[in-house]
Amino acid sequence: xxxxxxxxxxxxxxxxxxxxxxxxxxxxxxxxxxxxxxxxxxxxxxxxxxxxxxxxxxxxxxxxxxxxxxxxxxxxxxxxxxxxxxxxxxxxxxxxxxxxxxxxxxxxxxxxxxxxxxxxxxxxxxxxxxxxxxxxxxxxxxxxxxxxxxxxxxxxxxxxxxxxxxxxxxxxxxxxxxxxxxxxxxxxxxxxxxxxxxxxxxxxxxxxxxxxxxxxxxxxxxxxxxxxxxxxx
Amino acid sequence: xxxxxxxxxxxxxxxxxxxxxxxxxxxxxxxxxxxxxxxxxxxxxxxxxxxxxxxxxxxxxxxxxxxxxxxxxxxxxxxxxxxxxxxxxxxxxxxxxxxxxxxxxxxxxxxxxxxxxxxxxxxxxxxxxxxxxxxxxxxxxxxxxxxxxxxxxxxxxxxxxxxxxxxxxxxxxxxxxxxxxxxxxxxxxxxxxxxxxxxxxxxxxxxxxxxxxxxx
Lengths: 233, 216
Description:
The structure holds 2 protein chains of 2 kinds. By secondary structure, chain A is of the alpha+beta class. Chain A has 6 helices and 8 strands; from the N terminus they run ααββαββββαββαα. Chain A has helices spanning 6-50, 60-67, 90-93, 163-167, 206-221, 224-232; strands at 68-74, 80-81, 103-110, 113-123, 128-135, 142-149, 185-187, 198-200. In chain A, the strands form 2 sheets. A 6-stranded antiparallel β-sheet of chain A has the order 2-1-3-4-5-6. The longest helix of chain A is centred in the N-terminal third of the chain and has 45 residues, at 6-50. The N and C termini of chain A lie far apart (82 Å). Chain B has helices at residues 10-17, 33-38, 43-67, 76-98, 100-115, 117-125, 132-162, 192-209; strands spanning 164-165, 168-169. Chain B is built from 8 helices and 2 strands. Helices cover 63% and strands 2% of the residues of chain B. The radius of gyration of chain B is 19 Å and the shape is globular. By secondary structure, chain B is mostly helical. In chain B, strands 1-2 form a two-stranded antiparallel sheet. Chain B has one domain (30-215). Chain A binds chain B through residues 3-4, 8-9, 12-13, 16-17, 20, 23-24, 27-28, 31, 34-35, 38, 42, 57, 126, 150-156, 203-204, and chain B through 38-39, 41-42, 45, 70-75, 78-79, 82, 86, 89-90, 93-94, 96-98, 100-101, 107-108, 111, 157-158, 161-162, 187, 190-191.
């Protein structure tokens, strides 16, 4: 057949598309369960890491089940909702208005003190960023933080996923002396923010830093009613 | 070319080794500059990127070379793109399932591999007109030539921009001004423009050493 005839080109293109589609679908379906498992293990590792527990891909499952005290879902008024906190997809919750959001809370008991873990999800420069912050039982002092990202620039924005950046959060306060919620500012050297409410921004990663700051403000802010309620208990 | 030709004849060796020097994809063919700027702020991602591009380039070259007598001329670019994209997606899916940590490090690069002009450039210029084995060598050679440049750039950028190599501290903390020393990292190094300047310097050094590359 003439290789340059329209008929040949159409047949060639159609066969190619169907073959490629089939190959990709098979790859996707057959690998899905293994991929899901990796994602759930990673989530457990991230939550553990926010309460400063190191885990490996092998022991994460076991360690998580052993260490977690309880987990539950609340709404923005602080009322407890039904459901499994671990199955909440933060990406989906992002699109709902604040009063309709399901907000997961995890409680851990570390050295006799209750630590609360709050997940968050926001936008970096190129794609989503997310993380977990754990607070001491005073619900003010940060015990640990962990962040991750989908596609921030390596060496710049991607630095939010490093221990060095995350360590800065430990011991910082999210409420000021007047009990006002101030969150944490990701500050450049010339910004005048009290040190106990700020961490150093990443040089060359300004937009990722700003995205992280916004995520902290919004997603920690969603728990304000819960903080208040727990503090008055 | 007869089939009896040995696998590493002089000609095949030239196909494999020329991209490392006088036919380098980055500094001579000026392909793949964009990713050379994007992923070279640190050594580790540069090396991961170099390996992934080499693997995808070698295998897509072989596939295109096997298909070369059937591909209709008018849609050849699309066919090349589909082959590259399919390979990249399959590799990505496999990594996500069986090597999750590496897949996370690759993250943004996977997309960048598809758009890397070295791939399209080599498929179009070489694999479409040559046999599979030669195409494979050409893919490996060009991948290695690209990787070599990436690693050189990343070495200088990470060393002078962050004071470390592979994330390990090379320049002592006590040298830094904050700690009472005299040294400060060069912030320009971690931004893409500096990578372009380093590429320029490499081209300059290469041309002054190899007179064949100088146009009249």
